[in-house]
């Protein structure tokens, strides 16, 4: 027997909800019930408890994604499961088709070496602060980058202090003295040993990262690999990723060839030669590079955050490695897994068409302004009309807020957000900040708990001192 789902909604969204469900041609049975409320997003668990007198024989109830309150308690009260749907009604098909199959992103196999560049010029407390920041962003190993012909008198102290703080440590240098000192001070990895400096591996317990001399000479790399295998010691191989127009394609081929020759060795890729040396957003580059690593089973990367445009490279690589592992293990494309690497654009930026927005405006009976965007432009409307343009300044004469500074300021902020979203192709929801992928996921900005009611915001506070009614988050909602 097919599952029966009860959809609770508001008056404004009822028609679109029915149409969306019909277009899905669902295998389940359903009932759409208007809960005696105009805007669906205003619905709360307490309101449902008071107003819902019939569950229509449903097996479960789906409420709007912005519905606040304790749904577990409500489920116990009603005797059937009550769940939140997506925040936007047009996301309902994906909710039923893909959200239930969310992949586990808690796992990864690739280790991120976060390089503290120019470490000789930074004192130990500053190195620790940098290391802690890198660890928060996802780095597994802190790499101390040495500089040619530059003294590093506090190298041993830095390693010992990092180790005492629970960090894995690598040291990146071509100076045998630095590498030997680092190994004796307790470094876990040494970057990089070649045929001439391989003797250092016999002097210390650190795991060496092997390179060839010159770096494009795979025969040289084969020889150092063979020597380390004969010793029975763990090691990592770095075929060296070169920048674009300076051997990039050849270096990719080299990585492929090393994997072909040595199916079981551990390999490292220094992704900074792409992220640092290409003026483009690094999220996409990290996704591509970590995809290459996933296919070749490269399980170590060296990431840097020197250039200002690459200041989130470690955080991006952390998410990318999780996405790629989940995609590979489930034998699927790295799509519809997580949107954290989509900072500028979104998969479905415009939930409603202009025709649907016009249909919504025709049902409005109050003076509060709603703001929405579509492929056609920015739209602001209330019961008195709908005005559309790509330029927020062109909309100002229609708003009638010349003598209401607070309301004018509010509408200015929202229209600016709407313009940014419309130009970039991002989701815009009135009274909500724009999302920027993982770059908007600050640790201190924890996601709202849907079981708790949203605290009074600036819009509501301002409305108490303003003669003109201000819109709330719910005024633009078309959620289920």
UniProtKB/TrEMBL annotation:
<dbReference type="InterPro" id="IPR011005">
    <property type="entry name" value="Dihydropteroate_synth-like_sf"/>
</dbReference>
<protein>
    <submittedName>
        <fullName>Dihydropteroate synthase DHPS</fullName>
    </submittedName>
</protein>
<feature type="domain" description="Pterin-binding">
    <location>
        <begin position="93"/>
        <end position="365"/>
    </location>
</feature>
<dbReference type="InterPro" id="IPR000489">
    <property type="entry name" value="Pterin-binding_dom"/>
</dbReference>
<dbReference type="Pfam" id="PF20123">
    <property type="entry name" value="DUF6513"/>
</dbReference>
<feature type="compositionally biased region" description="Polar residues">
    <location>
        <begin position="453"/>
        <end position="480"/>
    </location>
</feature>
<feature type="region of interest" description="Disordered">
    <location>
        <begin position="444"/>
        <end position="480"/>
    </location>
</feature>
<dbReference type="GO" id="GO:0042558">
    <property type="term" value="P:pteridine-containing compound metabolic process"/>
</dbReference>
<dbReference type="InterPro" id="IPR045406">
    <property type="entry name" value="DUF6513"/>
</dbReference>
